[in-house]
């Protein structure tokens, strides 16, 4: 009890929050497992892309579609709090795309993605895909807790954000398979240590595959495309 | 009910979540109001800084302390999920600083900040401050829902993140008093429209004060410092 404020912690509310959160996550996990089977029935492998706002997820996707959009059957699910902007950008590349807006929520969840999968299916001639990208809401924290039914979780950090991000957002890195450093062409303008970012990420998760790209300048894009092709053939 | 997945939405869980969330927010609001009185009793005005990870909150604070750290009594509360890194950077400037780690949570809340205020008080000779900066967890979504007891809420977006951010994160802008565009010295390297960012932010919140800074290059810093001095004298 604080004399100045007269405050006390509310243990009762906290316990209730934990309990409800647990049941919410259990329901999400159930749907995520169904989504995974759904995606596999569509012949596809799905990727969940997680990053801060503005680290270049949509730009990387645009350049990726330019390079393999005609070779692989790709579908894109865009997650945002509001606006159709990202879907509009992807639509110009001529691939099936669905915009999911969460209306305030800070992450996608499995039931919402399930809806997206059906919408995506209707846009494909035969209902099949090789690769489905799910671009999560821009947020480096909350999406990490929600399995969407993906087969691979990718965390993106851009050079302008700083190389301390893996150490500061550990949970996000622990649950991922791939760590992509984006905007590598801007390295000379920022105090970003690739060595620190890689070392801290691997300390948290030694199994991480690390890729470095500068999509606009074409840096590291051959490696990235090869990685995606191998992934889609899994 | 979906044939492929067999899913259905869980209305029961959702209603329970809304109810618990409401009571959690009510408890937070009560403590926030107490914090505000607590801060005023310390003679201070408090600023809640909200942004994505890596948009330059700590760097702006470092340069701010270099300029007015000796003229105003400043205290800093650093919010992070993990690590003491930001507090270590601020501590070098010789001002009272407290690191709050949320241990996973995506935002600071009023009870945690209340603890921080007491720790800050103990570091000051007479327990008073002119200005208290609360650097929230790097997240452009969740912190917007939690009043910490601040007098002014500042949203920071850096040039590398893109000028579409106000439109994509509307709730965050609606609840703020100030919008700061950071890393302005990098404008030539990015496709960032200052006009779009300002227009969209003002469309959401016509009362917003907009400031543009490039802390490392010293751009717009005189304006920023004048703004803070006026704020601390309120």
Structural summary, described in words:
The structure is a homodimer of 234-residue chains. With 234 residues, chain A is an alpha/beta fold. Chain A has one domain (11-232): 3-Layer(aba) Sandwich (Rossmann fold), CATH 3.40.50.300. Helix content of chain A is 41%, strand content 17%. The first copy, chain A, is built from eight helices and seven strands; from the N terminus they run H-E-H-E-H-E-H-E-E-H-H-E-H-E-H. Chain A has helices at residues 11-41, 57-68, 85-91, 110-123, 165-168, 170-174, 194-204, 221-232; strands spanning 45-51, 74-80, 97-101, 131-135, 152-158, 178-182, 209-212. In chain A, helix 1 runs parallel beside helix 4. The longest helix of chain A is centred in the first third of the chain and has 31 residues, at 11-41. Chains A and B meet through helix 1, helix 4 and helix 5 of A and helix 1, helix 4 and helix 5 of B.
Offer a quick outline of the entry:
The first copy, chain A, is α/β, with parallel strands linked by helices and 234 residues long. Chain A contains 8 helices and 7 strands.
Largest sheet of chain A: 7 strands, parallel
Number of helices of chain A: 8
Please indicate the count of domains of chain A: 1
Order of helices and strands of chain A: HEHEHEHEEHHEHEH
Largest protein interface, residues of each chain: A-B, 55 and 55 residues
CATH class of chain A: Alpha Beta
CATH topology of chain A: Rossmann fold
Oligomeric nature of the chains: homodimer
C-alpha end-to-end distance of chain A? 57 Å
- Overall CATH architecture of chain A: 3-Layer(aba) Sandwich
Tell me the total number of β-strands of chain A: 7
Strand adjacency order, main sheet of chain A: 3-2-4-1-5-6-7
Strand content of chain A: 15-25%
**Overall average residue pLDDT of chain A:** 93
CATH superfamily membership of chain A: P-loop containing nucleotide triphosphate hydrolases
What is the CA-based Rg of chain A, rounded?
19 Å
What fraction, in percent, of the residue positions of chain A are helical? 40-55%
